[in-house]
Amino acid sequence: MPRAIIESLDHEGRGIAHVEGKAIFIDGALPGESVEFASFRRKPRYEQASAVAVLRQSAARVTPACRHFGVCGGCSMQHLESSAQAAVKQRVLEDALWHIGRLRPEMLYPAIHGPAWGYRRRARLSVRWVEKKGGVLVGFHEKRSSFVADMDSCEVLPPEISALLPKLRRLIGALTVRDRLPQIEVAVGDAAPVLVLRILQALTAADEAALRAFAQAEGVALYLQTGGPETVSLFHPQATPPLSYRLPEFAVELQFGPSDFTQVNQDINRMLVRRAMGLLQPRAGERVADLFCGIGNFTLPIARSGAQTLGVEGSAALTAQAAANAAKNGLAGNTEFRVANLFAATQESLAELGRCDKMLIDPPREGAIALVKALAGCATRRIVYVSCNPATLARDAAVLVHEQGYQLRGAGIANMFPQTSHVESIALFER
């Protein structure tokens, strides 16, 4: 059995070692450890492998809290102590900024920490009828597989949602559509949790009765989805209030639909919004743009400062929800919302937005390359960039600094997804 000494972790939480000049990426191995490994994929310049035995353990190694860890692909870092996870993610961010953008921030912000377990208030669970496994499986995919993990609990889901997994297996197994129900979306607000059942076949009257009884007994709201996101509709109970969450520090409450994008970790989101506002420093008399504004997660706290605030989003539905949230929070007077495809931004389209003293940019994983290239000649002097992908942040940061004349004042991570390799980060640019 080959052996290796682990040098560091990569952006997917795998141990990196070099054996006879070849890079080996080893699942389940931590920096400083000596491990025996077995390769499952070999290429001329690298191999992918799994740790078979740990011969010398890292002091940061812990026993995974979830008994499904290693089989379920939802988490990759449960074997690493929580504060060490944040340190690894900070290094991933620094490495991306340097190797992709040739940048080092003037300041590294302290990592934003929060609860390590039970935090995931949004999730997409797969459902499969597998006769040889005894019925319906509900959960995340197995590691490196399209199969659904055989799981009856999940430590990163809120406890009340984790407890529903075996109950959902029994419920769906008794439905006529058990093999035509591929997915359940979970959305947890400040009130009752919501489950969105994706169904590919009409329910029978008996199915509907079973679903109503389940919702009543478990205190959840059930929605049905027969096609795209626009087909999501409330099933039971009909008196279910809208999903919402609060940002108490800014005295705002945001409502959202079951399929609307929101951050999965509300504790971290509150701290991330606080940091973003501290870096942006919006003030009355300024005009501030929130680009990729979604339902107004950053827009409304910016507006609460008294600044005239412009929210721009590509989705008309999300833009309408953001405007409704502004009105519900008494902020309609200093907010404006527009629908625009920011992935196709040009200097001309940005000029149409009018003067922007400051900007907050919060794009999806693909980043905002067209937008940052279109900032040439823009008078915006301060930009806060919130990112869920260090690679695209580094690429866009290189344009902002090397082409647009900004300085990278600082950057740091927010551990939005503890136990996983996902890296959320925030950076400040000024000129």
In short:
The protein is α/β, with parallel strands linked by helices and 431 residues long.
Structural notes for this entry:
There is one protein chain. The longest helix is centred in the first third of the chain and has 20 residues, at 82-101. The protein folds into three domains: 3-61, Nucleic acid-binding proteins (OB fold (Dihydrolipoamide Acetyltransferase, E2P)), CATH 2.40.50.140; 89-115 and 263-430, Vaccinia Virus protein VP39 (Rossmann fold), CATH 3.40.50; 122-187 and 192-240, OB fold (Dihydrolipoamide Acetyltransferase, E2P). The strands form four sheets. It has an eight-stranded mixed sheet, sandwiched between helices. It is built from ten helices and 22 strands. Helix 1 (82-101) crosses helix 10 (390-402). It is globular. The protein has 431 residues and is α/β, with parallel strands linked by helices.
Structural class: alpha/beta
* CATH architect. name of the largest domain: 3-Layer(aba) Sandwich
Arithmetic mean of pLDDT: 96
Specify the number of helices.
Answer: 10
The description of the largest β-sheet is: 8 strands, mixed
Distance between the termini: 55 Å
Strand segment tally = 22
Fraction in beta strands: 25-35%
Radius of gyration (CA) equals 23 Å
Structurally, the number of domains stands at 3
* Uncertain stretches of 5 or more adjacent residues: none
- The geometry reads as globular
| Helical percentage | 10-25%
CATH fold description of the largest domain? Rossmann fold
The fourth-level CATH homologous superfamily of the largest domain is Vaccinia Virus protein VP39
CATH class placement of the largest domain? Alpha Beta
Order of strands across the biggest sheet? 7-21-22-20-19-16-17-18
